User: Fold XK-related protein from Anopheles epiroticus.
Amino acid sequence: MDALDGVPRSVLGYPVKTRTQIVMTFLVPVIFELMVYIVLTTADILITVEHFRNGNPTWAWFTLTLIWLPSVVCFCSIVSTPERWPEQIGCDERTGRFLFNNVAILVFFPFAALYRFSRRIFWSVEALFHDKNSYGRAQAVTKITETSPCELYHFLQAFLQAAPQMMLQLYILLRDGTFRNYDTVTVQVISVVFSFLTMATIITSYQRFESQKIVGRCYPWSTPEQASERRKELLRSTSTAESALATKTPSIAPESDPIVPNIMRNFYSRYGSEGERESTANERETAVSSSPRKTLNVNAFNFDRQQSKAHQDPFVNFTDDDKLHEISAPADSVDRESLPKFRPSGRSVSFKLRDTIEELQEMDYYLRSTEDIRYVTDDNDDEYLKPDGFDAVPKKPAPPTPEAAAGMFHRVSVFRNMLLFNAEAFIKEKVPRLPEGMFEHTEPKQQTTRKMTPVVSDQTDGDAISLPSRRQTIVGLEQDDMVGKTVLFIGWVMFLLMRMLSISTFYVFFPLYFWMLVGNHYLLMIACIVYEVRLHEKLERYFFYLFLAYMYVFSLLEFKIRFIHVRTWYVGYIGLVLLENVATLVLWFNLGAFESWWFYFLHYTIIASGALSVLCFLFYYAFLRPKDKVLFVNEDV
Assistant:
């Protein structure tokens, strides 16, 4: 398996080198995430200090709580998962080390995140110094992509720290009398801007995660054992299109098609096998080499048009009967002088007279054997000539009608089985909670022992058709390249800017209607999630679905549930959010009481960011979206 499997190998359709893949996929994004994390964490800590200095302990404690919240939720999620604990039950050294590591991440989470980013940067640079397909390159890439609990903390930071922190600081900035302390305002603006970048980074990375997960991508915070088992299971149970074509390439050999053996058997019976034909060809070559070879003399006058026209066929004026007479006559009785004289053209020409004579003799024999139909009469105005005795009773009896073969209706049964299989697959996909054993075609043992069914051989005759075998496929999605991620990142930054500014400003003027709008949106997202997972997911993750609906208040990403109708989800969600943002913008801009130029600036910023986000999404969907990745399910597993 390639170390860079799953990494985009082209940018805008042009293939790139492996070092370029490492730089654009690992090194540049990690450096960007590290810079954003350092600035965001530092700005939030400074905001807490400024709130304490300004005599606002409530805002200070609330800001500090939001800083610690992702780390606490990450710790609770890891500790409450039984698969992450050591296998041995009891308090031993491994259990103590497990608890100590997670408590250290909980307390010193900024340093743990910095260590994770620095480690990935180091191994990304290390991978650049090794050649392609070398052991050092594979080891470095493995270190870059190894899983860590810090990735879960980084994911939760976008929705438990950046999103609420952004709304809180925007609300404080838009209140009356908040522009007095210049230092506090500067730090708050920096925090809001980098919160946008943090959320956009996470949303871009996990945009279509479930579609990428089914074809090889793993959760970056899973245990190493889980990731390794996931990769082994995927390699064992599936195969790519390239490997499937390499292992099971369609062949014209007699064994690949049930019809071909009969055809090839007849061919070999007439012309011999391949080895016999080779030996016969070798014998012919030796015989030809021993016999005098007929040569064609090519000289300068061969290319003279006037001399080439002088060549005439010696039998050009002979009839077929004369040719037969000349060939069948003895050699001594042939009058050589009676043959036509022709001027030599300087080249020896070999005429296939023997073949022509044989054909003429066969035609003469055929005409002599069909004397009964040679004399025809034209006694009517029919379009064709009717021979005498055309309606007479044949002299020989007609041959018996061949009996119907056993495999005569094989092709009909094949099509019938295909239609039944498609109908069953459609019912299983569309109808939820089918009764158990509804489509089980195995008969009970008692009935099978009593019934004596005739055994039909699998060998088919020439009347049967050969259809390609039906294979189950898994259709996923490849990861985005650098250009696609950049355009999608800009689109989500503009989308979040429009969303956060519109609802935060609406909360300043109409707080009650704000909670009503957010509550209705939240309930609608829960209903959509439950409707989406009714067929292919279990309704046991109620608490997680509540958190997922909270994420859908700000953005949409395919995480933990796979969308069946992806286009319907994204078009509907973006249309709904645009409608809400326009409605809130119209309400607070026309009914709100404000005098500052700041709100006019926010009004035009919301409109511009919404238009840019829609353009980025359309451009990404039309030109930069990743291709589908198809895996074949191995039937022998």
